Amino acid sequence: MKEIRTSISEDYPEIYFIEGQRDGKYPYSHSILFRDTLIDTGISSGFLRKLKRKAEINNVILSHWHEDHIAGNRLLPGASFMAHQDDVPVIEDVSKMYEYYHVKDHPDQMELFQSILEGLRLEDTTINTMISDRDVIRIYDFYHLQVIHTPGHTKGHCCFYEKKSKIAFLADIDLSTLGPWYGGADSNVMEFEQSIKKVQKFDIEIAVTSHKGVIYRAKEIQKNLDEYLNKIYERDEKILNLLSETTPKDLEDLSGNNIVYPRYTEYEIYEKLAERVMIKSHLEKLSKQGKTSLKNSGYILN
To answer: How many CB atoms lie within 10 A of CB 167?
Structure first.
């Protein structure tokens, strides 16, 4: 049987990296365990059942509301759940996901999401404790887990920093090669940009992300964060290069140019919708910066 629980540091043997199914690729994600406190439950039902046989889980912290991070909640009925107040409405009523993903008015995308969410067997979860930026969650009065509110991916997205060990769980500031994702109704590219810069100010020696895994050494972590942040700037440039000073272009003109996704996956039907939302967020950002302006329902370069 594959070991899904791995100690991250010899100095802190009770902090574990919990591997998600399919190496944490969507619709699953990696987690981290501090003694009896688990952050996120999307490792897969099978993996979570294995983990429960090896570890006592009394507390669950949810980094944000996305399905690949909360799908295992139903398997921990006795646990106490925590989440940021901005994400609580969706966690407590998962039917809101269709609205937040912009799919209610798109039958094809709606059908895709229904199949994913039903497959994950999502259930509403009551949040017992709401967390806020700079809160410190004490775990057996030994580990002090600081909440870092990092909106952009979702409004209530949070990262977590354990001060003593300098270990951070960055959740979906996931340092993946795709780059940041901000295609939901509560997403925002400018907030995501600021959240990455906020995380960079912490002295992190070991970082765990939801889809990339464990990254060691502060220098390597900062390099990964820089590259991740640069993905946003690269998308800015792609959009600016498609615009002109005379001919307005709207979202329809800009979509389908692989500005976010270098190639589409089996979820292409939704990825194109999300990409459109993300392009719109960039256009709003570029307009605020004075680089573009709206003309005849389209955008031109200033």
So the answer is: 24
